């Protein structure tokens, strides 16, 4: 019976993750194209996607590299973009923290926006899921996502400039993050953090090396934390 429910959770994850291929594919395709146009060879492009497996930070780092930004700025910017992964990890600990080390290691590698968003919603909705079912669901979600990230990065790197501009592949980047972020803005603190980070990012867009993004990320986190404290002191729903 346990094996049956685990398999069911895995395939449910596959079904829930499958629609994301519609945005992951053009996102990865675009990265492959942009990376090769920026001067990376096929091996470097693929290593970038396989080792980092974080589209937003990959684009950030790549843009800064093409601008000959200092290495410390490249690393700091990529880290700032990926700081959300630390918060993702912390919120998943109550659900996956008791899993064996090797499973947690694989889950950490495959922790992307989509696997987190689908996982945390599923775990909070179905609180009677066992640890095995939770892990199975998590890896089910990434099954259609991550392999296609690698595959379409490869295709983009191989075809390069042969993709016509009218395809407008860059639409996938904002659509992906809007689709993931909007449903998660469930409290006043979330909304305050989002508004502050967006405002700062727009106001500071002219700063060199995209350093405004660093300030926007930090400002958003501070605003969200302060909003939670303010709402808790007044007995409001956080």
UniProtKB/TrEMBL annotation:
Q: Where is the signal peptide?
A: none
The text of the family note is: Belongs to the AzlC family.
Q: Which GO terms describe its biological process?
A: L-valine transmembrane transport
Query: What are the protein's UniProt keywords?
Result: Cell membrane, Membrane, Transmembrane, Transmembrane helix, Transport
Lineage top rank: taxon: Bacteria
- Report the main location listed first in the record: membrane
Look up the record and report any one GO term of the cellular component aspect.
plasma membrane
Family annotation (InterPro entries): Brnchd-chn_aa_trnsp_permease (IPR011606)
Which PANTHER family does the UniProt entry name for this protein? Answer: INNER MEMBRANE PROTEIN YGAZ
Q: Any idea what this protein is called? A: 4-azaleucine resistance probable transporter AzlC
Q: Which residues form a coiled coil?
A: none
Q: Show the stretches that span the lipid bilayer.
A: 20-40, 135-157
Topology with respect to the bilayer: Multi-pass membrane protein
